[in-house]
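G., before I forget:
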Amino acid sequence: MILKNKNVVITGAASGIGLGLVKRFAKEDLNSLHLLDISPNIFSIATQYNANGYMVDVTNEEQVAIVIKKIIENDGSIDIYCSNAGYQKLGTLDISNDEWDKMWQINVMSHVYAARNLFNEMIKNKGGYFLITVSAAGLLNMNGSLGYATTKHAAVGLAENFSIMYDSKGIKISILCPQLVDTDMLRLADNISRDHPLFIDGILSPEEVAECALKGIEDESFLILPHQQVKKYIQFKSADYEKWLKSFSQLVENEK
Ligand SMILES: NC(=O)c1ccc[n+]([C@@H]2O[C@H](COP(=O)([O-])OP(=O)(O)OC[C@H]3O[C@@H](n4cnc5c(N)ncnc54)[C@H](O)[C@@H]3O)[C@@H](O)[C@H]2O)c1
């Protein structure tokens, strides 16, 4: 998709990868840029990047619907929607049901709420772009983060289904799947061991991830992999599922 003159929305835009996307999109000749976040910081960030800020909880469908409607009324369309906000609670069977629900709402349902209020408008407008920030954990799993990895797998399934159902109607879908990125989410997960397999491939900056995301949107690639090694891991997984599981399990054992 050509980015010039487009109306763009980014959720989770107040920090991390979302803020990286803001900085990168702000360099393009857009028609408008709209930033959504649950944090009140979104207003000062919007001012800084000549954008419009909205304090919105993306797990509240009513709030999401109101903002989408308002932007379309003002600007005529939303052409690119980056559904980026996400949440991780580390843990395994000890994660509380409330934390599972929170991850399910943010990592899966927030995309459903946005799509439900947006896709018909995009179809009327003869197309649009919906980018979901997932994670390599949604493709390759992640030990020590059961709820996050599971909900991110669900997000991959959701995005595939969107692509299958809506590509022919002009809606292009991408999943942005980095491994580790230098954001608050990673800093809060400071109890992840530095021997965790994820650290092997290094930590990218939000700006590097945003650069890949915009290239992916321009190329209309479904799968956007800022860490190139992930492609090799997916190929290994699909070529020999049993061997992949055993190797991963061995890596986890070695970590102890
Ligand atoms: N940091 C990583 O290593 C990494 C790796 C792969 C994928 N991701 C994904 O990238 C996305 C962005 O994460 P990040 O690392 O930039 O984290 P972050 O914590 O820096 O940023 C998340 C942003 O989302 C906002 N947010 C959280 N809940 C919200 C809600 N209910 N409504 C609106 N906004 C909300 C937060 O206020 C924050 O500004 C997430 O989907 C995450 O799962 C992160």
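The longest helix spans residues 97-124. The chain is about 50% helix and 15% strand.

More on Monday.
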